[in-house]
């Protein structure tokens, strides 16, 4: 009896959760034995569990109960080489990076196994001839389904493994090519390679040494095709399969009607049960293969495997990134576009704001409302008794308004002016009373003034308050216009102009500048959010696409560990984040002259760490989400609260206490504040206001990475 390469014992596998109604076994009491050096054809209808069984054999999924032995060890055990270089696995999906060329795809797996470039080139030429591969420079994404399948098969064969596991390798291929592939597999088997192959073409399996017929997760029978035909007294395998299926149906039916307990347990006699292999000792007795675990052939290749794997994954990631123009543009140009957009759009005064004016004072003058255009008018005249005569001061006020970009449109009546506001032609309406200048003179010079004097010297304003920012701007400019107007009047009357100033004087600011700009306030928050988001989106997208395309899975079967994939990604992404950090700083500090007092190195470090934080958040999204859509929903759903609560849109001092506490724990609040303090106050890193932001960022990096590793470790597979 030939030694077995693969033994599966009493295997049970379930998907989903126990308490759900559709919780039923995908593999059920399954026994299977594949001797070394044979081709084992695994046949079965769609959904019967073939792929699940293969993924348990290559160590990507775990059985719920039962055992799997592969090449003398248990898949996943240290030193077993499975997953790893002893197996060549071609999954049902193409599982190749779409941006790979044909050559890259084959070389990628060769490099993982530590193959030298010369050997790889020879092997590539050989496989190109055997499988009629398209030209080596063609991109995978431009190939037909059949061509992609052949490249995928070549990738599984490249390192001449001991065990080949091929999930439907011949689907959609030309019959002549199929025949050639089978001939090649037969030759490999003669040379000692074990092949497990699933196929839908029952005819094909006649060439296998042994076939196993799988239905509803149960292996109905397994033996050589000739023996199966003889046992079931049939001329072809289809009929034999049909007979087995009918028998299985009958047995299940009978069992259901006779057994009251354990309806799911099939009597052992009804399915294949090889009682030879009950333990590692039995297995080794049968296979005489403790040596399999420690064999001499075991692998030199494994020794240098780690270096090869890192190299392979690094080259893959660079190719993936560099051949993806969208990704490149997004990563390199987007930070510049974002920062330029921010500085170009935010903080500038609104322009072309028009205000309706009803000037009763001017209207009553001999020149009417055009009097304000007359430059020869004397507005203020000093009398001999040193009192001041004032005339048409409303014109001065309007001049001050225009200097502040509030342009006036004259109306005859208040009703017309208010109507213009209601129609949104103007942002507000002002009315100057008929005796404005005289009443104002009395109001200022007299110690007391009657109500009618106060009324006559008051400008009425009706403002459109529906736009918060514009309203504030109009109000502020009116205040400023009034202050300038009042000072001008006092100056003209040779009086102390500070008298009209509110009796509070704003001295030299402790931090910042007197007329602080909103841009300088918002910029730190905007910069930390941009760099965080970009890294999170790029990372989650790359990782999810690797997973969805099956590249992650296939690389794992080839022996690449998740942490190796992550480490390579971290290195590459860190370089990208570094570039993004410099780009943003150059645009902000050099291009837009954003003021800063603190150390630029500390600023760069904080931005870089924020990028790393975003990258780790992207990792977390990619391991939590099974699709782009879900990751997009979670990303958008989490980013908005983070931005809203971080204090750049509204001060956290105005939030309820609980929300304030939450906002401090978020990744933008304290880092944005630290960056602002660094820029405006220039305080050193040792100040808690600065290192607090660093600590939160580092906390997020550690927290999200820890969650990723926990998720990867305890995910049910
Ligand atoms: N991750 C999963 N979660 C839940 N159910 C799954 C999962 N993967 C497979 N299944 C279910 O398990 C059953 C067996 O699937 P499997 O892919 O192993 O079948 P298969 O024989 O390879 O089918 P096919 O030939 O169509 O690929 C199917 O009913 C499938 O829907």
TrEMBL record:
The keyword Zinc-finger does not apply. The lineage of its organism: Eukaryota, Metazoa, Ecdysozoa, Arthropoda, Hexapoda. InterPro entries: AAA+_ATPase (IPR003593), ABC2_TM (IPR013525), ABC2_TM_bact-type (IPR047817), ABC_transporter-like_ATP-bd (IPR003439), ABC_transporter-like_CS (IPR017871), P-loop_NTPase (IPR027417). SUPFAM superfamilies: P-loop containing nucleoside triphosphate hydrolases (SSF52540). It comes from the Eukaryota. GO terms for cellular component: membrane. GO terms for molecular function: ABC-type transporter activity; ATP binding; ATP hydrolysis activity. The chain crosses the membrane at residues 518-544, 570-592, 599-624, 630-650, 690-712. This is ABC transporter G family member 23-like. SMART domains: AAA (SM00382). It is found in: Membrane. The keyword Ion transport does not apply. Keywords: ATP-binding, Membrane, Nucleotide-binding, Transmembrane, Transmembrane helix. Residues 486-715 form the ABC transmembrane type-2 domain. It is a multi-pass membrane protein. Pfam families: ABC2_membrane_3 (PF12698), ABC_tran (PF00005). Residues 6-241 form the ABC transporter domain.
């Amino acid at each position: 009896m030939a030694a077995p390469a693969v033994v599966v014992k009493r295997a049970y596998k379930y998907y989903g959760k126990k308490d759900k109604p559709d919780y039923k076994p995908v593999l059920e009491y399954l026994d299977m034995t594949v001797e070394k050096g044979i081709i084992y054809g695994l046949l079965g209808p769609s959904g019967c569990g073939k792929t699940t069984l293969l993924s348990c054999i290559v160590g990507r999924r775990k059985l719920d109960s039962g055992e799997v032995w592969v090449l003398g060890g248990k898949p996943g055990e240290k030193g077993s080489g499975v997953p790893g270089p002893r197996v060549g696995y071609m999954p049902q999906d193409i599982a190749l990076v779409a941006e790979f060329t044909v050559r890259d795809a084959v070389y990628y797996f060769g490099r993982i196994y530590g193959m030298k470039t010369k050997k790889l080139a020879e092997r590539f030429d050989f496989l190109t001839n055997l499988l009629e591969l398209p030209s080596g420079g063609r991109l995978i994404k431009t190939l037909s389904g059949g061509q992609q399948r052949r490249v995928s098969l070549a990738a599984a064969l490249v390192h001449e493994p001991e065990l080949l596991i091929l999930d439907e390798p011949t689907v959609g291929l030309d019959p002549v090519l199929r025949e050639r592939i089978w001939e090649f597999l037969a030759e490999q088997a003669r040379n000692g390679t074990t092949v497990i192959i699933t196929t839908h073409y029952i005819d094909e399996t006649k060439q296998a040494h042994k076939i196993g017929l799988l239905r509803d997760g149960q292996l109905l029978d397994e033996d050589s095709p000739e023996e199966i035909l003889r046992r079931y007294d049939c001329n072809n395998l289809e009929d034999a399969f049909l007979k087995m299926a009918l028998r299985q149906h009958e047995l299940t039916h009978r069992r259901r009607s006779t057994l009251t307990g354990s309806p799911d347990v099939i009597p052992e006699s009804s399915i294949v049960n090889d009682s030879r292999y009950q333990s590692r000792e039995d297995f080794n007795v049968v296979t005489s293969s403790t040596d399999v675990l420690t064999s001499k052939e075991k692998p030199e290749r494994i020794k240098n495997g780690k270096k090869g794997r890192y190299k392979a994954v690094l080259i893959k990631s660079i190719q993936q990134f560099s051949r993806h123009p969208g990704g490149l543009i997004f990563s390199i140009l987007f930070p510049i576009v974002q920062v330029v957009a921010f500085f170009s759009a935010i903080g500038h005064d609104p322009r072309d704001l028009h205000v309706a004016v009803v000037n009763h004072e001017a209207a009553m003058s001999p020149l009417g409302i055009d009097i304000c255009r007359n430059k020869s008018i004397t507005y203020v005249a000093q009398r001999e008794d040193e009192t001041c005569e004032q005339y048409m001061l409303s014109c001065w006020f309007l001049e001050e308004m225009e200097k502040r970009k509030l342009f006036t449109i004259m109306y005859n009546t208040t009703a017309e002016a208010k109507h213009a506001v209601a129609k949104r032609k103007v942002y507000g309406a002002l009315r100057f009373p008929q005796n404005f200048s005289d009443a104002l003179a009395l109001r200022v010079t007299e110690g007391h003034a009657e109500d009618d004097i106060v009324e006559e010297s008051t400008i009425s304003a009706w403002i459109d308050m529906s736009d918060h920012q514009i309203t504030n701007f109009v109000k502020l400019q009116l205040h400023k216009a009034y202050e300038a107007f009042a000072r001008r009047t006092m100056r003209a009357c040779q009086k102390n102009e500070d008298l009209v100033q509110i009796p509070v004087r704003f001295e030299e600011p402790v931090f910042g500048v007197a007329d602080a700009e909103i841009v300088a306030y918002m910029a730190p928050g905007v910069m930390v959010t941009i760099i965080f988001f970009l890294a999170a989106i790029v990372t989650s997208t790359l990782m999810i696409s690797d997973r969805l395309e099956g590249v992650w899975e296939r690389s794992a079967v080839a022996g690449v560990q998740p942490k190796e994939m992550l480490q390579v990604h971290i290195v590459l992404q860190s370089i990208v984040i570094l570039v993004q950090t410099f780009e943003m700083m150059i645009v902000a500090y050099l291009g837009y002259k954003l003021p800063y007092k603190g150390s630029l190195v500390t600023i760069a470090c904080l931005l870089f760490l924020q990028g790393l934080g975003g990258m780790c958040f992207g990792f977390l999204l990619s391991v939590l989400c099974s699709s782009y859509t879900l990751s997009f929903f979670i990303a958008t759903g989490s980013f908005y609260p983070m931005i809203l609560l971080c204090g750049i849109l509204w001060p956290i001092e105005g939030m309820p206490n609980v929300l304030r506490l939450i906002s401090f724990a978020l990744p933008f609040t304290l880092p944005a504040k630290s960056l602002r303090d660094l820029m405006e106050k220039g305080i050193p890193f040792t100040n808690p206001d600065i290192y607090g932001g660093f600590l939160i960022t580092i906390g997020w990096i550690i927290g999200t990475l820890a969650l990723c590793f926990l998720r990867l470790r305890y995910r049910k597979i």
